[in-house]
Amino acid sequence: MPRRAGLERLRTRDPGLAAVRRAGRVALVACTGFYTARYGLGSDVAAIYALFGAIATGGMSSSGGRPADPLPYYAVDAALWLTSPQGTVTAIRRTPEEPRTPVPG
């Protein structure tokens, strides 16, 4: 069974399935940000910024373990958490208004 073999291989490489859980959290946050910006704020551009901001933040966050000097990690995390919403707000403000088509009549 190829499916069972893939799961066993994954468990041998990642016994606690930490990478799977981390990927699930990133996907959940990315989808929440995307749909909130797209349908809550009504902005396509902000939705894309929210989606990729969440993916970039999840990809660059620390992947576990205890670093010897945690200060650089905290600085990078703070920079990511500050710049991701800033990019989203900038995208909302810079979204051009859709051109209006004259209605014949």
Task: Please write the string of helix (H) and strand (E) elements.
Answer: HHHH
On the 0 to 100 scale, the average pLDDT is: 75
Largest sheet: none
Could you list the spans in which at least 5 consecutive residues all have pLDDT below 50? none
- The tally of beta strands, per DSSP, is 0
Fraction of residues in β-strands: under 5%
Please tell me the total number of domains. 1
Radius of gyration, in Å, reads 20 Å
Quickly count the helices: 4
Helix content: over 70%
Structural class call reads mainly alpha
What spatial form do the alpha-carbon principal axes imply?
flat
The CA-CA distance between the termini, in Å, is 66 Å
Describe this entry's structure for a reader.
This protein has 105 residues and is mainly α. It has one domain. It has four helices and no strands. Helix 2 packs antiparallel against helix 3 (44-60) and helix 3 packs antiparallel against helix 4 (71-93). The protein is flat, with a radius of gyration of 20 Å. It starts with a helix and ends in a 12-residue tail after the last helix. 10% of the residues are buried. The mean pLDDT is 75.
Throw out a few tags for this protein:
mainly alpha, 4 helices
List the helices and strands and how they pair.
Blueprint: H1 2-13, H2 18-40, H3 44-60, H4 71-93
